[in-house]
């Protein structure tokens, strides 16, 4: 709750500040710049908080059975049934945030760099000044989602978000601490590693190497945990 409140407060403060400052002091160009970077900052905060907030939300649905009593796994002082209202709110948050963020990123990417956008660009013999400026502003707001990837891999950020969600949040539902949980984590990591090697999504080969190395380390860590 505190994290969500902080996130919402940050976005509201940014929005109010943007409107007040832009209305009184800035030219039209500087207003656009300030507004675009405000959106960028808000999106960045959401992006950074996404894995941890998703994991915390899913903790509302985990429980341990002690005899006939069900207790919330994250806090054994709380009964699972006592948190029914919190779980209802959590379901809304799962739909609006946990699922909404990847869907929103997909829509942004499809609009900015998807096949329909590339097809439209190839059909235009000359880009208008308005179109160029619109593309520039879109890149300032959401460029971090697609500028580092090859055009054929415009969707990769959504894939990476889902990978993080599976490893940090969804995986905890699979018999916590069991061998099965480790094997599922290994499968997810192996699949992600194979996808990265196959598509080599980054524009820079150094980033491809870094991505493969980091995912290989994750995979080897999970494999090593089978021995303990």
From TrEMBL:
For this UniProt record, the keywords arranged alphabetically read as follows: Membrane, Transmembrane, Transmembrane helix
Q: Under which name does UniProt file this protein?
A: TRP C-terminal domain-containing protein
Q: Per the UniProt entry, what species is this protein from, by scientific name?
A: Prymnesium polylepis
Keyword Transmembrane listed? The answer is yes
Q: Does the keyword Membrane apply?
A: yes
Segments spanning the bilayer are 34-53, 88-109, 165-191, 203-226
Q: Which domain of life is it from?
A: Eukaryota
Q: Where in this chain does the record put each TRP C-terminal domain?
A: 67-228
- Stored InterPro entries: TRP_C
């Amino acid at each position: 709750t505190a994290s969500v409140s902080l996130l919402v407060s940050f976005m509201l403060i940014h929005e109010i500040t943007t409107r007040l400052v832009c209305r009184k002091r800035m030219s039209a160009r500087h207003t656009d710049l300030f507004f675009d970077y405000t959106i960028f900052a808000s999106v960045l905060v959401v992006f950074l908080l996404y894995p941890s907030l998703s994991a915390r939300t899913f903790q509302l649905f985990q429980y341990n059975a002690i005899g006939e009593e069900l207790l919330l796994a994250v806090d054994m002082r709380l009964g699972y049934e006592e948190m029914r209202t919190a779980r209802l709110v959590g379901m809304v948050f799962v739909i609006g945030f946990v699922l909404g963020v990847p869907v929103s990123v997909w829509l942004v990417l499809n609009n900015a760099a998807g096949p329909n956008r590339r097809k439209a660009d190839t059909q235009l013999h000359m880009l208008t000044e308005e179109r160029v400026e619109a593309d520039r502003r879109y890149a300032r707001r959401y460029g971090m989602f697609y500028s580092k990837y090859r055009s054929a891999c415009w969707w990769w950020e959504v894939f990476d978000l889902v990978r993080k969600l599976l490893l940090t949040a969804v995986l905890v539902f699979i018999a916590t601490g069991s061998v099965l949980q480790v094997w599922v984590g290994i499968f997810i990591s192996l699949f992600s590693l194979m996808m990265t090697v196959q598509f080599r999504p980054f524009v820079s080969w150094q980033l491809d190497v870094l991505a493969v190395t980091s995912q290989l380390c994750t995979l080897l860590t999970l494999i090593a945990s089978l021995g303990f």
